[in-house]
Amino acid sequence: MQTNNLSKSYLIKTLGCKANFSDSQALESELQKRGWIPAYDDSHADLCIVNSCTVTNEADKQSRGVAKRVAKKNPKTAVVFTGCGAEVDPSSYKSAPGIHYVMGNQNKPELIETIIQKLEQRTALPTQAEILGSVTDYVDIKSRHPIDREWPMPIGMNPDQWLESGNTARTRVFLKIQEGCNSFCTYCIIPYGRGPNRSLRPRIIVDQINNLVKAGVREVVLTGTNIGDYGTDWSENGTLMLDELIKQILDHTSLERLRVSSLDPTEITDPLMELMESNSRFCPHFHVSLQSPHSKVLKLMKRKYDETQARDCLTKLSKLKPKAGGQVFVGMDLITGFPGEGETEFQETYDWLKTQYWNRLHVFPYSERVGTPATKLTYSVPKHIRSERAKILMELSLNRLQGFYHETLRSQPKLEDILAEGNSGYTPHYLKVMFDREIPSNELVSARPYEVIIDRASGDVSFLARTIS
């Protein structure tokens, strides 16, 4: 592990949310700045960073599995375990197979510097994982953030590195504008992994986007742990400031495409929709963090809205007339089989979804997470029923999504402003297009769709299209 022997190749394995992807892009940027290069496969890396997810027991298991597989392919790879799993329960990874270093979200900003120093000082990897930084286990989880932890602001960006070969941010950047969450939904442990809400000021974000545009970035996705909390930590009366931020981005940058990540139904405000109707650079695409439309289940989840508010949001979105044209594309997250969701509640959910405006569902069978209040709720739904309900909703989603693609195929002989990612790309409405030839990444192209392709296993739908020179 001495400095002179390092070939400086890395892997970054990212699990979970877009906030993790944003962190990974920043970590990758810092590595490249220091002369490290992407490894061409899992067997030829000096360093692997596993940016973990621990939102459920299954997610935690998957994160551990990634680290184990990388180490098995190359025992000489130094495996660093970070992310929410490392923050919430670091000691549980000390003896986990394949993990050499554990470093939580608190210390992510200095992760690269710390790990490089470790590798330069060592001649061999530790036989048991070392816990680095200030992270400690949560002994007693309560519905509050601990006062003895210092949480960093969102990791800054290094725009000079975005378009280097192999960088995962070649086509779009996940720009973290906010970190942490104050909601404490009963099924979620993430507030303990990310801390309380803290937001970057609009001026900082506008400056970052202007620098990214200079570096060649064409699309930015605003993301965070819970961007619906944006600005409530410093605004007057704790009011939501996302619409004001987006207005400033559109007014003071030349960014070609702007998206926002998941929002609760009550966070998709009238001013936000008005901005989409007045500016074509604000992509006509919302992802609604719904989880359930049933008021009883929402109350058990400790969500901050009910069925009426969810319906009102989707009704408004159905009438939205985006400046970019067409209708707004609406994706939604849903959990099936949450404790207390009986057959009646599920049937009412299914019937409700059939009558509302949306384009795609992202469906997850409820999965327990140790330490969350939901595990103590009564009326647990058997796992096989959770999965059966998920399959029913995924089938509903696939039918709705392919219908939307077929209708688009009939009504739009030409698709414009597709942001290319090699042999595929996405329209402003977030419709996936597969090209008839390889296109350089980060180019905006037009194409004529001629077929709709359906992947039943993943629930994905895409166009086959011929590019227009």
What number of structural domains do the residues give?
4
Low-confidence stretches: 1-5, 161-169
In helices, the fraction of residues equals: 25-40%
| Strand order, largest beta sheet | 2-1-3-4-5-6
Question: Span between N and C termini?
Answer: 50 Å
In percent, how much strand structure appears in the residues?
A: 15-25%
CA-based gyration radius = 22 Å
Largest sheet: 6 strands, parallel
CATH classification, class level of the largest domain: Alpha Beta
Mean pLDDT: 90
The ordered string of helix (H) and strand (E) elements is: EHEEHEHEHEEHEHEHEHEHHEHEHEEEEE
SSE topology:
Blueprint: E1 9-14, H1 18-33, E2 37-38, E3 47-52, H2 57-73, E4 78-83, H3 84-88, E5 101-103, H4 111-121, E6 130-132, E7 172-179, H5 190-194, E8 198-199, H6 202-214, E9 219-224, H7 242-252, E10 257-260, H8 270-278, E11 285-291, H9 295-301, H10 307-319, E12 329-336, H11 343-355, E13 360-365, H12 383-411, E14 415-420, E15 422-426, E16 432-439, E17 444-455, E18 460-468
Parallel strand pairs: 1-2, 1-3, 3-4, 4-5, 5-6, 7-9, 9-10, 11-12, 12-13, 16-18
Antiparallel strand pairs: 7-8, 14-15, 14-17, 15-16, 17-18
Structural notes for this entry:
The structure is a single chain. By secondary structure, this protein is an alpha/beta fold. The chain has 4 domains: 3-132, Cobalamin-binding domain (Rossmann fold); 153-261, 2-Layer Sandwich (Transcription Regulator spoIIAA), CATH 3.30.750; 296-408, Transcription Regulator spoIIAA (2-Layer Sandwich); 415-468, no CATH class. The chain is built from 12 helices and 18 strands. The chain has helices at residues 18-33, 57-73, 84-88, 111-121, 190-194, 202-214, 242-252, 270-278, 295-301, 307-319, 343-355, 383-411; strands at residues 9-14, 37-38, 47-52, 78-83, 101-103, 130-132, 172-179, 198-199, 219-224, 257-260, 285-291, 329-336, 360-365, 415-420, 422-426, 432-439, 444-455, 460-468. The protein starts with 8 loop residues before the first strand and ends with a strand. Mean pLDDT is 90; it is low at 1-5 and 161-169.
